Give the backbone structure.
Amino acid sequence: MATDASFHVFDTTLRDGAQREGISFSVADKLAVARLLDEIGVGYIEGGWPGALPKDTEFFARARTELKLRHAVLVAFGSTRRAGVRVEDDPQVQALLDAETPVVCLVAKSDVRHVREALRTTLEENLAMVADTVAHLVAHGRRVFVDCEHFFDGYAADPDHGVAVLRAAFDAGAEVGVLCDTNGGMLPMGVGRVVADVRSRVDGRLGIHCQDDTGCAVANSLAAVEAGVTHVQGTANGYGERAGNADTFALVANLVTKMGLPVVPDGCLPELQRVSHAIAELANIAPDDHQPFVGASAFAHKAGLHASAIKVSPELYNHLDPAVVGNDMRILVTEMAGRASVELKGRELGVDLDGHGDVVGRVVDRVKVLEAEGWSFEAADASFELLLRAALPEAPPPLFELESYKTSVEHSRTGDVVSEATVKVHVDGERVISTAEGNGPVNALDNALRQALVSRHPRLADVSLADYKVRILGWKGGTGATTRVLVDTTDGVGEWTTVGVHANIVEASWHALVDALTYAVRHR
Amino acid sequence: MATDASFHVFDTTLRDGAQREGISFSVADKLAVARLLDEIGVGYIEGGWPGALPKDTEFFARARTELKLRHAVLVAFGSTRRAGVRVEDDPQVQALLDAETPVVCLVAKSDVRHVREALRTTLEENLAMVADTVAHLVAHGRRVFVDCEHFFDGYAADPDHGVAVLRAAFDAGAEVGVLCDTNGGMLPMGVGRVVADVRSRVDGRLGIHCQDDTGCAVANSLAAVEAGVTHVQGTANGYGERAGNADTFALVANLVTKMGLPVVPDGCLPELQRVSHAIAELANIAPDDHQPFVGASAFAHKAGLHASAIKVSPELYNHLDPAVVGNDMRILVTEMAGRASVELKGRELGVDLDGHGDVVGRVVDRVKVLEAEGWSFEAADASFELLLRAALPEAPPPLFELESYKTSVEHSRTGDVVSEATVKVHVDGERVISTAEGNGPVNALDNALRQALVSRHPRLADVSLADYKVRILGWKGGTGATTRVLVDTTDGVGEWTTVGVHANIVEASWHALVDALTYAVRHR
């Protein structure tokens, strides 16, 4: 449980993050997200806006009995009483109390132009709205934080009202005054200067909440910490409106590993990558492979350029040991593939290349030729592993011999669209003809081929396509371009990726499918 | 053309950005990217590493005759001479000269540990490598910039060698010494301190190159500018290894609109969004809707909350007028916005919707239904125009009635891969059966359909596919996802784009093809 002395890590995925276009958490999703955030040791989880959003009201009700948190406390978000209304008469404020959370976070206007033009009230009434609401909630036993909306823009227009709002909040018993860059237009140097100035004028714990409209949300937050803030707000994976919010995972990783501030309990940091991906799943948003710290490619190194050096001293090339945040280092095999890359990759894939220097040389040459034709193994580890193993002396024979295949799509007179495929293959000397349907020409081909092989290789019954990516390369007009297909296949336990390249999209897919099934039989 | 006095905006999409996992630019792509970067007024375009990468060698050769730049100059990248080798004997350095660019950018080690452990040489030899190579290139008439690799980590280990490298470079005639945060582990406050210190110890133009491993690349670059740097490096959309590089578009937008530095010529800033999206297309990477400044959602506000306030005073809610960077404000999820968009778009496409309020309403509803199914008209103006016109009272009948089609791909016993398609259509009451081949199932279908229609519509003889893009949406496991196909068609004079969506890739392509040919006949 966060104590008054500790640094506050405050996550608002479930309130501000949920504003992102396309996110729609169910109540069950929200409970799951809260548990995940707790696992990385955040101190505060802002769960939503009770009263204003029915799902949020329900979330807080269910959380009371269903949510057991180890590190975090739950926070209900809402606004100060409305202008001209008594706080005890304001149903929004009552809804905040009904949520029965230990902490309430109020949003207050701190920019004179917003007070006058949006709220249409006076500066004095605005201060009273803040003071009354804070005092009312404190009297009911709540810890109260106050988000000062549009603080930085307001500070530029009139530096005194924002400070007055902070003082009114603290005097009424608020625990934190959060400076919010609501429109997201700040840069870190400016944030540092404003925070230092406010720090010198106001006692009480200051917080920071940044949006990413200039691409500086994380940096702005860290600059604020250096200038005296001890409460940071973020969302998982930086989800939020417009360009999003400061990414909680980057904030935590930077504060701990770069600024030496132990803001989460021991043992929590290695959970970062797992939790980042799990929350992306719940939000139904593809994880960003290039996300700092937790992205799948965050520690992936390309190029024969320094593969030899990485083997010697990984710390010369990684700003951080990836294991600290639950990630790992990957070597990519690319156009710049040299012997060192191939050896390293082989080791990573569990292929023993010791004493096979000639094999390594042949593989390097083969990869360069294929890549010039459009093949790319960077994202297709399973195809690369098969290519490596096939170059070794004791390489096994292919899974089957192809005689022919045919796949078709028909849009009939009745309007039905049907795809069918027939494969003729030789499996262990036996000729097999297999026909199947599918929802596209490639899916039908995949079904037909698996059907042809499954009695000989029963484990293929659990194998299915998980994803299919098509890329048309170097279009050369009507004569056609090269098509590269990447296929993700799963057996319900793990996934592997294979690649195929050809002028004909179906033939390219065929290559990727054959690799996928061969890999399934030999290496899963 | 950039002069010595100006601020340098240096883009390395084609060299460092191309290191991103999954990017593979053809030479044609590289030329197209260079033209686009020129359109936003960058001063320097680092085109690649001649000698080391065959495609880059070819790029520089073709650029000499095929690339006409208005604002930028081309830069060739490479390394200093190898240790113990004379500069005039080093083929890598000769390759830099052979590229015949006005500017060369050299990468030099500036971290003592890298000099000793990775290069396995002495600090003195490292300084000689820098001086010799710079002097050699300057003597051959090149302007030389020097990237000081691992500068910040090196500075922490030994602040003197990095400074010595800078001095050696400047003394030998280099124009810029670029401080590179190669491992990406810096935060802005630290960058500012190091740059200020270096600025006080070294004369000569300093530059900054940041990687995004802590999520602070843009902020770090701006902090460096505030501390005295006058040359910033970035990549389009922040593409690059691991977590990527500083995003050139965010750098430029921040420098101009937040820091008051006119780093690109007038009229270039409004091209930012268009160029960002076009380069994403060339890289075959889906644009990031939440990217600062240029993302489709960067200025999108959820309605209801403050839609009325936004209409009154947009500057209270936007940190910047979106039009400055070629973007626009979107109000999400309101019927009013839907109608306004349709009317605006109709006007833009030359469709007169006056007095057809009911039509507008029906189109809005239809678009919402289609978009929920995966259709997107943002990039398919021709399909949208056909949809609009089809909703008007005097809408013409379809070009033909489809009876059926069939398309197949066969991989024969002899190893040939053949695609064939047959369409059965009714054209002006006459039944036509047409069969054609192609290099894929869709190309065959396109050839068969055009063949069926060309005698009735002779202008189709000049029409052909120019590009074909496939995106698989929302994969739901083996039951199949939705496929969205975008088809670019040309008549040799102009191009137009149409869209099709269906679970079956061929049926999706069919829709896009029919729209493409209908548009060709009616509106070209």
